[in-house]
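Supplementary Methods S3. Input chains for the assembly prediction are listed below.
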Amino acid sequence: MKTTALTNTHIALGAKMVPFAGFNMPVQYEGVNIEHETVRQSVGVFDVSHMGEFLVEGPGALELVQYISSNDASTLTVGKAQYSCIPNDDNGIVDDLIVYRVKEDTYLLVVNASNIEKDWNWINSKNTFGATLRNISDDYSLLAIQGPKASEAMQSLTSIDLSGIKFYHFEIADFAGISNVIISATGYTGSGGFEIYCKNTEVQQIWDRVFEAGAEYGIKPIGLAARDTLRLEMGYSLYGNDIDDTTSPFEAGLGWIVKFTKSFNNSEALADLKAKPLQRKIVAFKMLDRGIPRQGYTIVDGSGNSIGTVTSGTMSPSLKYGIGLGYVTADFKAIDSEIYIQVRKKALKAKVVKLPFYKP
Amino acid sequence: MNIPAELKYTKDHEWVRIEGDVATVGITDFAQGELGDIVYVEVETLDETLDAEEVFGTVEAVKTVSDLFLPLSGEIVEFNESLEDEPEVVNSDPYGAGWMIKIKLSDASEVDGLMSADDYKALVGA
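Predicted C-alpha cells for the full assembly:
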C-alpha cells in the first residue's frame, strides 16, 4: 500500500488508518462529528496527498487540455483554476478534476487518487498536440486547510494577503518558510480555505507550522470520513459514487462544466445528448422519516416500485438528519418530489431538495 | 480500552450482563470506537422471541451501518428508549447508559458459551 509523506505523523496522532485508493489514509482522528464541526466553525487540515497531479507543458498544452476536458480552459488566466471533467467516448466521465493555469503554457491537472493511472493513460493517448506531460503525483503533497478561520489563522505564515485570494484563484508564494508553494483558494468542504501544493520533502515543515499557527483557533487534523460528510452537505460529486464511466455529465448535474464554446473529445455526441430529455437525473434528497441513506440503497416510489439508486448518503453532522444523492427516473427529479429510500425492510419517506443541503 | 471483568462477551463485540434469567446487552468499548460517532440505534424486535445469533437491530454510525446480533436466545423484553434521542451515549458510556436491550433468556445454559473478559481481551488484542 502507498503512503503519503505524512503517514507516520497521522499514526502518531492516533488516527484510524484505512486503505483508500491504494493509500494508507487517516479516516478519522478524534471523531467524525467533532472534525466536521471544526471545519464548519473554525479551521481543520486534511492530508489529501493521495490526489494525483499532472503537469501539461509546452506550446500544445492548452490544446491538449481543451481536447480532454469539458470545461473551457481558454478562459483561464495565469493564477486561475476551474472545475472540469474528462469525458470518455461513451458519454460517461473518465474523471473529474481541477485545472490550474500555472504559467502561460503550463497547466496543472489535479485528479482523483483512484484514477491516477487511468487518467494518465487516457490523457497520454489523446496527446497528439505535442504537449509535455509529467506525472508528479508521487513527489507532491497536498494539504487542504479548510474552514471560515483559515485565512486569519494562516496569515502569519505567508507574505501574501490570504483573504485577497478569490475563490478558484491561486498564488505561488512563500508559505511556512517554504518558497514556491501553490496556495489555492479551493476545497471540497464549502467552508472556505485553501489547498496547499508542495513537495513531499517540504510537507512536514508546513504541517507543523500550520498547527502552530492554528493552535489558538483550535485547529485539528481532519480525516477522510469528515471530508465525505462535508462534501456531501454541499452536494459535491464524488467520483466512484455519484459519477463514473457510465454517468453523463448532464444527468450528473454537471452540465455547467460542459462548454460547447469549443470542441473536445466526444463533444458532438454530448451536444446531441444534451438536446434530448434526460432519462434519469441525480437528485439531492433529505430524509423525512428517521433513517440514514447509504450508497447502493434502492429508491422507490410510493407504491414500492424501484425508481433509482442512492449513490452517496450519510447522517448530516450539521443538520442531524439523513441526506443523500441518487439517480432517479426523470418523473421524480423535480424539487419537492416525494421519494422513498428502501432502508433494510422499510421504505422511508424522503424529499428531493435543492443543493446545498447546508449553507456554511 | 475498557473491558469490565464482570461482564460476558461475544465475538460480535457485544457485552452481556446476567442477572437471574435476564441479560442486559450492549456493544463494547472496542466496538463503539471502531464504529465511530453513533447516530442511530434501531431495535424493532421488542417483545419478539429470537434465537441466538439472529439480528435484533441495527446500529448506525455516521459512516457505517452494522447489524446487532442477539448473544443469547430469548424474548427481547426491554429496549433502552433513551438511545432514540441520545444514541451518542453508546460512545460515551457503552457499558452503562449505552445499554441496548434486555433479554428474558430461553436457555440459561447458553451463557456458558459466552466469552470471559480475558478471552475477549485476547480477541481484540487489548
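The first helix of chain A runs from residue 7 to 12. Chain A touches chain B at residues 16, 27-28, 31-33, 225, 228-229, 290-292, 294, 314-315, 317, 344 (CB under 8 Å).
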